Write the structure tokens for this entry.
Amino acid sequence: MKIVYIVPGTGGTFYCQNCMRDMELVRTLRSQGHEVLMVPVYLPLLADARDISGNTPVFFGGINCFLQQKFPFFRKTPRWLDKLFDTPWMLRQAAMKEGSTEAASLGPMTLSMLEGPDGNQEKELERMITWLRDQEKPDVVHLSNALLLGMAKTLKDALGVPLFCSLQDEMPWIDAIDDPYRQLCWEAMAHCAQDVDAFVSVSQWYADVMKRRMALPDDRVHVVHLGIKLDDIEAAPMSFEPPVIGYLSKMTDSLGLGALIDAFIHLKQHPRLTDLKLRATGGQVGGDIAYVKWLKNKLGKHGFAEDVEFLEDFGKEDRRKFIQSLSVMSVPACDGEAFGLFIIESLAAGVPVVQPESGAFPEVVNATGGGLLYAPQDADGLTMTLEALLLDPDRARALGETGRQAVAEKFSTERMAKEMLAVYSRYTNS
């Protein structure tokens, strides 16, 4: 099968679960003999994905999209000028800036992108279509998320093949935008959805949410859980000498890093947890940098600055080494997420998780049996649940081992690719 897979990049500045899922799916499909053209938009892909993106250019370069949104002059500039802003170095610098990957200030541009050929980035869409027409005709086109739906109709008209769209964490982005753009974006997404043959959600919980928010019929929404590459993942030692809590996600307040730091400070008061450590990784951009500095100062005031590490590198091998050093993983995002890739990354090494009972976290934790849930509205829930696990190493090891076996059975990239191909096959002759 020949597949065009259109994926937004992050510039490699933070732990992007959607990006990692997309590139592992593409790698696995290619290893199975399928021809997949991975097309990045906005920013370059993670460093881990450069082996599969090849020489494919970045379309809808983030700097050009911003300039075209703000200044009508740039909507008519020649390509030679636009190329200056599309160099990898320029785009990676832009990715580090305040607001470049945050939703709140990007309502007008998000709506413009969803308006497709009627938006301010029309010439970027024309450039992509022209380039894709020069490639061999695919069997399907797959959009990485619903924020890209503005290009759906143009792609279908130009290429004449079935079009698919993943559903993975668009809701937090849209809901962070101020009205009237928030409501306008939801309406635009629902309208553009008419041009999509099928949607693929990363969890049942998120499928149900997006069916309501976008008025999607049940028969056009399928669920394919995320998967990870399981080769050579060793079981973590789980020594508890000392016990170590881990955090693996973008280092920002909205994903619960501050809540975890507060819980850590309380746990350090326990007479049996005075040697407790915390390690956090996942990258930071813009305001996150100042926020992490503030957290470090807070830890210093309590005398715990030396007990917490904020690690810069979070590539595939860096993450594996990081997880090997942990006793438990927790990313206490109180509003939940569409899946939580860090859960299965942690459990693949036998490290249990502690997560709020929100979003898709219960679905994933219950499917693996590899962790504990707590009520997010309980102010002490995170601290007490972590304490119960940290003081009972045998239970932690048992949960981790249960989760490790479940991930091996249910959450491989091979299973993910097989289920995705089954969805494609329902709408094609392949």
Observations:
- Residues 2-227+413-425 form a domain with the Rossmann fold fold (CATH 3.40.50.2000).
- The chain has two domains: 2-227+413-425, 244-410.
- The chain is about 45% helix and 15% strand.
